[in-house]
Amino acid sequence: MSKTYVTVLSVEQYHDDDKFKFEGKLSDLINQLQDIIQSVPEQYHSDLMYDISTDSSGHGSYYATFKLEYQRDKTAEELAADEARLARDRASIEARERATLENLRAKYGDK
């Protein structure tokens, strides 16, 4: 079965100075994270992952992201949507290729 990632929280911060400033009461942060965890179906609690990353442009600009997500099996509806998208993509590619073929035949004939 195919898997999908479910993003529960995604926070981004951008600064043009030398530092990021994250502050507040730790108990508030813990309570917010506990609320987020409770919003995730219980069978995925142990699979919940976090990612904290930062990047710098080298010119005094900084960018940070904080993400919480888990992986689960795709639903039948998601799998059907994937198949429909693939079918549309294949049809689009074939239409483009056939148009190119017709243009080349018109230009060079059936040699």
Give the tags.
111 residues; alpha+beta; 3-stranded antiparallel sheet; 2 helices; 3 strands
Spatial shape = elongated
Q: Could you give a short account of the major beta sheet?
A: 3 strands, antiparallel
First-to-last CA distance: 47 Å
The Cα radius of gyration reads: 24 Å
Average pLDDT across residues? 87
Question: Total helix count?
Answer: 2
Question: Runs with pLDDT <50, length 5+?
Answer: none
Strand order of the largest sheet: 1-3-2
| Number of self-contained structural domains | 2
Sequence-ordered SSE layout with sheet pairings:
Layout: E1 3-15, H1 26-39, E2 49-56, E3 62-73, H2 76-108
Antiparallel strand pairs: 1-3, 2-3
Walkthrough of the structure:
The protein has 111 residues and is an alpha+beta fold. It has 2 domains: 1-73, no CATH class; 75-111. Helices cover 42% and strands 30% of the residues. It is built from 2 helices and 3 strands; from the N terminus they run βαββα. The protein has helices at 26-39, 76-108; strands at 3-15, 49-56, 62-73. A 3-stranded antiparallel sheet has the order 1-3-2, with no helix packed on it. β2 (49-56) and β3 (62-73) form a beta hairpin. The longest helix is centred in the C-terminal third of the chain and has 33 residues, at 76-108. The chain is elongated. The protein starts with a strand and ends with a helix.
